[in-house]
């Protein structure tokens, strides 16, 4: 299915819509894509119903090539099995990834550094942390096995840091032990190297990585955001030399699919409520009721006051 460029106006979509559509456009047709629960699942299914009808979707819990007609609430939802080639378990799903068949994986993170190292484990010292996070789950596995990974993150200055507290998922430059020196991901992974982080979609913009240095750079700014504003929200020096413009907004057809087909119950993506102009209340002529202890609210509704 192809879509025209009937882009929605800013008041017609929310931030979640924008992130979902930006993530969906990272998917290419005929790819094998690994999905977790939440917004990435909506994004992949949106791609499947628009520009990538032949993608193969692997739900993390073990359903292969699932084509559910409606949005599952999680990767373990029985609806994931509808239209699937195989319904198995975690072992099969991650075995396929380990064998190198997965083209793209969507992940999240709590902290990110300028080389794409991601932390979902702990803030502060590992043994005496300031905050213990949810842990790795399948994050490092998918990030290591997939040819490309896309991270979707909330953008705060404390999250886009010079050095992450803990490397849960390796980026493009990581420490090589026992010496501890930073080397390129390709050198560290050796024959097991397949790729790495390809994009970061944050709540402020879309970022990519230089093929040689592995450093992050800003690709597009979300509508209403400036490159300098985004750079100020990073603790490292953000490369602004390759900004290509503004992140494309959702099309009206994408919004229709998201809210009428995929997520009408607003499980993951809330629908933006239309803004109606405020109407001034009509003037109410005084009547005899006013002197009898009755006031009139805008719109003509009477409110009876207690007698003095």
Overview of the structural elements:
The chain is of the alpha/beta class and 308 residues long. It has one domain: Glutaconate Coenzyme A-transferase, CATH 3.40.1080.10. Helix content is 19%, strand content 22%. It is built from seven helices and 18 strands. It has a ten-stranded mixed beta sheet, with helices on both faces. A hairpin with a 5-residue loop joins strand 6 and strand 7. Helix 1 packs across helix 2. It is globular and about 55 Å long.
Structural class: alpha/beta
What are the secondary-structure elements, in order, as H or E? HEHEEEHEEEEEHEEEHEEEHEHEE
How far do the termini sit from each other? 71 Å
Number of strands: 18
The CATH topology annotation reads as Glutaconate Coenzyme A-transferase
Given this structure, which CATH class is correct? Alpha Beta
Sum up the overall morphology in one term: globular
Helix content class:
10-25%
Strand order of the largest sheet: 4-3-2-1-5-10-13-14-15-16
Low-confidence stretches: 286-308
Please describe the biggest sheet, giving its number of strands, its sense, and whether it closes into a barrel.
10 strands, mixed
CATH architecture classification name: 3-Layer(aba) Sandwich
Radius of gyration: 25 Å
By CATH's scheme, which homologous superfamily applies? Glutaconate Coenzyme A-transferase
Count of individual helical segments: 7
Query: What share of the residues does DSSP label as strand, in percent?
Result: 15-25%
Number of domains: 1
Mean pLDDT level:
89
